[in-house]
Specification:
By secondary structure, the protein is α/β, with parallel strands linked by helices. Helices cover 26% and strands 18% of the residues. The strands form 9 sheets. It has a 6-stranded mixed sheet with strand order 11-16-15-14-12-13. A 5-stranded mixed sheet has the order 18-28-27-22-23, with no helix packed on it. The radius of gyration is 27 Å and the shape is globular. Residues 686-757 form the Fibronectin type III-like domain.
Length: 773
């Protein structure tokens, strides 16, 4: 049986091959400096004691003023206890970033490896890749911390659901499916933090909790938006990635969002923070606000009458740390006015300080600790940059390939016209929340490695407001052996605070594509850079546009990855992590309507609930070869042990949807063995996606299908590999009713693998105990 297409071992090998001896530059200890005789004997500095005991000791030594100074991202120093100031806000969405003030580039650390934007990496459907990227990012983060230029607390990843295709920040997310987003979250967090929950490599943060997916649309912004969300949608869509991030990824932090949910600011909602994140899911770490969101709930949402009430409500709801100055300014007065007990402040501090202790910040010299040897040579190393190239290659999706016209051949396509506003970009490729990349390979530079190129922009930028530069581009296409148009979007069109008005290409881009394709002597290939889906129905239906690639925002090595796929050095294997809708989907569809399920005059959201026409479906992606699936082994009947059914309700269990809380879930799972055969003459990497459809008659509250498993497998030409998929019954085959209760439907379920395989099996309740009425 083939193991999953893992990159973890490859990264380890490359590091050994390319990285010489580490040179970690020593930085002064944050606290508990062995040279400080006033503190090195105190209990909170004694590493032989438990973290909880050390934290209690430290909190007991702090004054109220000192405590309040630690509740903000720019935490104050406590000189009398040997504690330096600390900036909590650093970002590492797809590489160490300088967006937050906690990390800066310069000196021995001029740059960091910039991986593809998350939406592109998610398209790989490769969990081992996501973890490998996290390991590299945390290596570079620790190295920069050791060198005095970075922090250890990174407010990444963004695991919100890409619910509406217009959302400007959809590019930051793993897509529209909650299980995909949750798997990504858990994998990336494990890579960042390591697997020892008591010793964090860095502290990650899953954000923005919850139902946050609107920035600025039609006069409604995130600071004033009240998301009206049903219990059903909260449970089966919006909360799923966060629950998986906490329970499976063991993330050290969760960030609450700007918006309100059902009239309550998320950062002041005890049901969300205390009850759900901490009590139900068991967060071992801290809860942080999005930046200035405590101030926003007071000043913009007018949720409280006074700033002291806002501070008190947030802390009592379960908020531990404020990104911004608000808690630092108003918590002391909130305590003095009796709105907040000092014990509430102590509880928040305990969550904050325990994470810093798990990071080793109270353990003395950083250079003497587990990751103290990481230094400048561990940033932008050849191994790390090679992984960035592999990530881009795995995330690129082949949408169309008539003929097939791809791959191109250097032997026959000697001269290539390279056209479009994104044809020679660099910074565009790294999307938002990026840092300074180690270096770039633009698409033009990548293609030039394989052919002579004739380059024309066609438009000054993606806005493409006129056709003044069309002429030279069209002439180049007439003479070239092949034409590659590299079009799409950038951060001027979709970004934080910038939601799109529609799904069409900006300005005259469509006109440029059509005219160039009509004139082209050879095949015309369209490459799109974008975070969100684009309605390119015209290109899909145009026979002169023979192939289409979606590259997302492919990172620093994006141009090399695009060229490698165009010329067949690499084979495409990505799948779309979001539905591509036609422009008409948006007709009378406000972004503010949060309902996932369809209804009268309402189309529904994502592949799980939308049943109308699409341009390309979730999971679409072609390859240069052809794969077929066969179920080698799978159960036909699965018994679900059920407890706690009253005698009066026990007569017809086989036709009911059993509450998950009544089932003995444990490790109850279904194992499917699939044979994947490569029917073509080229080696290829295949993404196996497994969907489940619940029994018929489940009502309009059940999704039409949902993703329950995926694996990446490399299959040589004409060969076959066996893949194992494990499906947890309670987590993945359950649905959520209108009351927000998760249930397992009994009866016949069906699994769908690709377009060629369907396997049906029956879930049958097995009553283990009866409670008398």
């Amino acid at each position: 049986m083939a193991s999953p297409f893992s990159l973890l071992n490859l990264v380890s090998i490359l590091v050994l091959l390319f990285a010489p001896g580490h040179t970690g530059e020593s930085r002064d200890p944050f606290a508990c400096d062995p040279k400080n005789g006033n503190t090195n004997g105190l209990p909170f500095c004694r590493t032989n004691l438990g973290i909880a005991e050390r934290v209690r000791d430290l909190i007991g030594r702090l004054t109220l003023e000192e405590k309040v100074g630690l509740l903000v991202d720019n935490a104050a120093a406590v000189p009398r206890l040997g504690m330096k100031g600390y900036e909590w806000w650093s970002e590492a969405l797809h590489g160490v970033s300088n967006v937050g003030p906690g990390t800066r580039f310069g000196g021995e650390f001029p740059a960091a490896t910039s991986f593809p934007q998350v939406i592109t990496t998610a398209a790989s459907f490769n969990a081992s890749l996501w973890e490998a990227i996290g390991q590299v990012v945390s290596d570079e983060a620790r190295a920069m911390y050791n060198g005095g230029t970075g922090g250890l607390t990174y407010w990444s990843p963004n695991v919100n659901i890409f619910r509406d295709p217009r959302w400007g920040r959809g590019q930051e997310t793993p897509g529209e499916d909650p299980v995909l987003a949750g798997r990504y979250a858990a994998s990336y967090v494990r890579g960042l933090q390591g697997t020892d929950v008591n010793r964090l490599k860095v502290a990650a943060c899953c954000k923005h909790f919850t139902a946050y997916d609107l920035d600025n649309w039609n006069g409604v912004d995130r600071f004033h938006f009240n998301a009206q969300v049903s219990k059903q949608d909260i449970e089966d869509t919006f909360d799923v990635p966060f629950r998986m991030c906490v329970k499976e990824g063991k993330v050290a932090s969760v960030m609450c969002s700007y918006n309100q949910v059902n009239g309550v600011p998320t950062c002041a909602d005890p049901n969300l923070l205390k009850k759900t994140v901490r009590a139900q899911w068991g967060l071992d770490g801290y809860i942080v606000s999005d930046c200035d969101s405590v101030g926003v709930l007071y000043s913009s949402q007018h949720y409280t009458s006074t700033p002291e009430e806002a501070a008190a409500d947030a802390i009592k709801a379960g908020l531990d740390l404020d990104c911004g100055p608000f808690l630092g300014q108003h918590t002391h007065d909130a305590v003095k006015k009796g709105l907040l007990a000092e014990t509430h402040v102590n509880a928040a501090l305990a969550n904050i300080l325990s994470v810093q202790m798990r990071l080793g910040m109270f353990d003395g010299e950083p250079s003497a600790q587990q990751y103290g040897n990481l230094g400048p040579r561990d940033v932008c190393s050849p191994a790390h940059q090679q992984l960035a190239l592999q990530a881009a290659t795995q995330g690129i999706v082949l949408l169309k390939n008539d003929g097939p016209s791809l791959p191109l051949s250097p032997k026959t396509h000697h001269n290539v016209a390279v056209i479009g506003p994104n044809s020679n970009v660099t910074v565009t490729m790294i999307g938002n929340y990026a840092g300074i990349a180690c270096g770039y390979t633009s698409p033009l530079q990548g293609i030039t490695r394989y052919a002579q190129t004739n380059h024309h922009m066609g438009c000054d930028n993606v806005a493409c407001i006129d056709d003044k530069q069309f002429g030279p581009a069209i002439d180049a296409a007439r003479q070239a052996d092949a034409t590659v148009l590299i079009m799409g979007l950038d951060q001027s069109i979709e970004a934080e605070t910038v939601d799109r008005a529609g799904l069409l290409l900006p300005g005259r881009q469509q006109d440029l594509i059509s005219k160039v394709a009509a004139a082209s002597k050879g095949p015309t290939i369209l490459v799109l850079m974008s975070g969100g889906p684009v309605d390119i129905t015209f290109a899909k239906n145009d026979p002169r546009v023979s192939a289409i690639l979606w590259a997302g925002y492919p990172g620093q090595a994006g141009g090399a990855a695009i060229a490698d796929i165009l010329f067949g050095i690499s084979s495409p294997g990505g799948k779309l992590p979001m539905t591509w809708y036609p422009q008409e989907y948006l007709t009378n569809l406000p972004m503010t309507n949060m309902a996932m399920r369809s209804g009268p005059s309402y189309p529904g959201r994502t592949y799980r609930f939308y049943k109308g026409p699409v341009l390309y479906p979730f999971g679409h992606g072609l390859t240069y070869t052809h794969f077929v699936h066969r179920v080698a082994s799978a159960p036909k009947l699965v018994s679900v042990p059920v407890d706690g059914h009253r005698r009066t309700n026990n007569t017809n269990l086989e036709n009911k949807a059993i509450r998950v809380t009544h089932a003995r879930c444990g490790k109850l799972s279904i194992t499917i063995h699939l044979d994947v055969k490569n029917m073509g003459s080229r080696d290829g990497t295949h993404t196996v996606l497994v969907f489940s459809a619940p029994p018929a008659g489940g009502g309009n509250w059940a999704p039409q299908k949902q993703l329950v498993g995926f694996e990446k497998v490399h299959v040589p030409a004409k060969a076959q590999q066996r893949v194992q998929i494990n499906i947890h019954v309670c987590k993945l085959l359950s649905v959520v009713d209108k009351a927000g209760i998760r249930r397992i439907p009994m009866g016949e379920h069906s699994l769908h693998i690709g377009d060629d395989v369907k396997h049906s099996f029956s879930l049958q309740a097995q009553a283990l105990g009866i409670i008398k009425s």
